[in-house]
Amino acid sequence: MSKFPRIRTTLSKGVILPSLIFIVGVSLLAAIFPQTTNELLNVIKNFIFVNLNWIYVWSVTIFIIFLIYLMASKYGNIRLGRNNSKPDYSFFSWISMLFAAGMGIGLMYFSVAEPIQHYSNEVFSDNTALQRAQDAQMYTFFHWGIHAWAIYAIVGLALSYFAYRYRLPLSLRSCFYPLLKDKIKGKWGNMIDVFALCSTFFGITTTLGFGVVQINSGLQTLNILPENSFIYQVLIVAVLVSLSIISAVSGLDKGVKLLSSINIIAVVVLLVFVLALGPTVYLIGSFTEGIGNYISNFFTLTFSTHSFDDKTQPWFYDWTILYWAWWISWSPYVGLFIAKISKGRTIREYIAAVLLLPTLFNFIWMSVFGNSAIWFDMNVADGALSAIASNPDALMFEFLEYLPLSSITSFLTISIIIIFFVTSADSGMFVMNSISTKNAKVSPKWQTIGWGVLLAVLALLLLNAGGLGALQSMTLITALPFSIIMLLFIVSLIKALVIDKNYYETDFSTTTVTWTGDTWKERLKQIVSFDDKKSVHEFIDTTVKDAFEELETEFAKNNIDAVINTYEGPYRLEIEIKHDLVNNFIYGVRTESKVVSDYLLSEENLPDIDDNKTFYPKAYFGDYRQGYDVHIFTKNELISDVLKHYERFLEIISEEKNEMFISSDSNHRLR
């Protein structure tokens, strides 16, 4: 026996080893050489933002168009799971969790800071104060609205669809199944998961690092901590990551669900407080006007690259493009988490909820806090909030000083940020463990704890060394290739949804209409047989030819001239009745081939197939309608089928309204 007990793990070596090497390597570079690394990554980031920003603009636009199309289309009724699946969570719990994971800390950090920074930005200094206030709200809506959630929704939809509908692992590699098939189990799949894991880790690390700084600033404002220093940030991280680990280990159904529900209630309480005690009438009016302004400028904002305005281009790169890159870089993490909690929802319900409800709440939240801050800055603070626009860590708490009970609201704000911190960290641990184990159903708890410790150590290392900026740049750079990957998700979804819909809408074969039970044994033999080209030719030379010859004779008895035509390449036989004024009537049978699924080839409880290509006789018609397989027709059934189509032909040519379709000018032969 080994002296040391074997440690049980579900980690995939093909994913975890290259991911840890890259994560630790980049983090050490950013910590040891923060300035050099930051400068180098900034050069790459700036090149992408300036020269390739159109990729972000078009990608996000395509995401929105595709989601709206799906929501309104016939595919909207498809369920994320089996057809009888039920949602795992109540609607309130579902919305609370996806909202908390998606933008929690960001809403607290930027709800005052972003509108104030737009309002006070020198780029817009030529505009009036009222115009700047209106534009600040519109741009904030733009960055935190439908465009942002469309990015998350695409990844979450692809993941949940392929995981619950196709019963594949809840992993980004599964989203490529229609394109790569079983290759997703090998190196290609590992590469995709490594990319997702690194992107997720970098995004969470930088966000949590900035979140710790804001919490420290808030505690300093409340005089709970004497200063904003690294020592206190270490203590904050130790406490919060410990809480996150406890929450993550307890599972989604307990820790994350409970904290998310508590936090959404606390957020609403704070929102109502600011709305009631702030400039209420102004806030309601500005929110209403802001919605209209956003809608009326939606397409202009969506497609704008500021190419005709050199003055605003730097602002466009630093805000809009940075946001699109940031949301895209976060989408593997948020998308995986949303997919985990969305089983059982229909595609229409999923898109409507993920795209519209968080967007509406974000608009309300940003209007109440951002517009209140701008109103105070213009009417009460005499520009004091604009003066500290470059210090977003303190802006929220400085803003609360202009409202009653500022100590209580500041404490509530810190509590909300802490819970958002914990829910982001614990759901992040869950997601990273899921990626690194290829979605193992049960993993040892030490793995979840390990992700929490690694997050804390690297976040503090970078925070102390000043390397968070470099890591943020790295995160934004990875967004460019991932935006291309997300476009491929759409291709995969389209391909899979078409197959899905056809599968459930496919009715019995046309050939079964004439069936009786008289020859059921022969029919069973025909159904389970897969023919080669020679046997199909034999069927055409015997059954089909005999049927057509009997028809030719019988047509002649009724003074109708019918001819039988034979052609090669592909081999086919047809019976034709020629006309001068209307199209010829043609009913033919030709040799066709189809590729058999690899699964069918390896399935033991199905007929033996030696090759993945099989042949069958397919009916075709002179008017190019869709034909069908006739290999299980008897001679008499084939005669009956020809007469059925001939009766349809006579019915159509007898109606005057069909004249334009039956003219002899379109009497082309199928050769």
UniProtKB/TrEMBL annotation:
Gene Ontology MF annotations: transmembrane transporter activity
Keywords assigned: Cell membrane, Membrane, Transmembrane, Transmembrane helix, Transport
Superkingdom of this protein's organism: Bacteria
Topology versus the membrane: Multi-pass membrane protein
One Pfam family of this chain: BCCT
Signal peptide: none
Listed transmembrane segments: 12-33, 53-70, 91-112, 141-164, 191-210, 230-252, 264-284, 321-339, 351-376, 402-425, 446-468, 474-494
Compartments where found: Cell membrane
Keyword Lipid biosynthesis appears in the UniProt entry: no
UniProt GO cellular component terms: plasma membrane
Coarse class of the protein's main subcellular location: membrane
InterPro entries (alphabetical): BCCT_CS, BCCT_transptr
Family: Belongs to the BCCT transporter (TC 2.A.15) family.
PANTHER family hit by this protein: HIGH-AFFINITY CHOLINE TRANSPORT PROTEIN, HIGH-AFFINITY CHOLINE TRANSPORT PROTEIN-RELATED
NCBIfam families per the UniProt record, alphabetical: bcct
Protein's UniProt name: BCCT family transporter
